[in-house]
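A quick aside before the break. I want you to see a complete sequence-to-structure record at least once, exactly as it would be stored in a machine-readable document. Don't worry about memorizing anything.
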Amino acid sequence: MEHSKFVEEVKSQLESEHKDLPVGRNGRDDNDLILWFLRDRKFLVQATVSKLAKALEWRRDFGVDKITDVSIRRMAATGKAYLHTSPDVEGRPVVIVVAAKHFPVEEELVESEQLCIYLIEKALSQLPPGGDKMLGIFYLRGFKSRNGDLKFMKFLIDVFFNYYPKRMGQVLFVDAPYIFQPGWNMVRPWLKSYANLVRFCSVAEVREQYFTPATVPVDFM
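That is the input. The structure line, written in tokens, reads:
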């Protein structure tokens, strides 16, 4: 009951100050979305209104709801990122990034960003009852300097800080080669407290600790 009071305050303020923002699912009157951002902002109404308004503006301007299977088909075909068909042992949807298949090309940055958002949205749509977080796995075997992409990493960090706050339950860096370390040293300060979500581990640890024999992703068999 107490939470509903805060939700209604945020909803009322958004209606008053941001009439141009969309309504409906993932809109300014979506109770679940408002409650999630309230929790992120520790139930401070004004802070929630400010952050949620920016997130909704971004969703509209980025065209999140217009991204489809067809629009991301070419980038998805590279196999560099995908939603695993099974959750992990905690029931979390799993997005896997195969870093060695990512080759940064300036004109393809928007397509990579769209694939990223498509996978996040799809993962969140598969959350189990009571679930609220996903698992991200970066498979780094074979990673070379040519696969590094600071622009995309900045986009990804911005996305999870501002538009999908606290939706990432954990991030696994799997079989990271030595050449990955300088890039990580550069990116880590950007993550602030989110860096605590990162775990470096091996393929065997992923296979044995995060999945059952029947649900292990093909890349880790």
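Two observations worth writing down. Residues 155 and 184 are 15 Å apart (CA to CA). The two ends are 47 Å apart (CA to CA). We'll return to this after the break.
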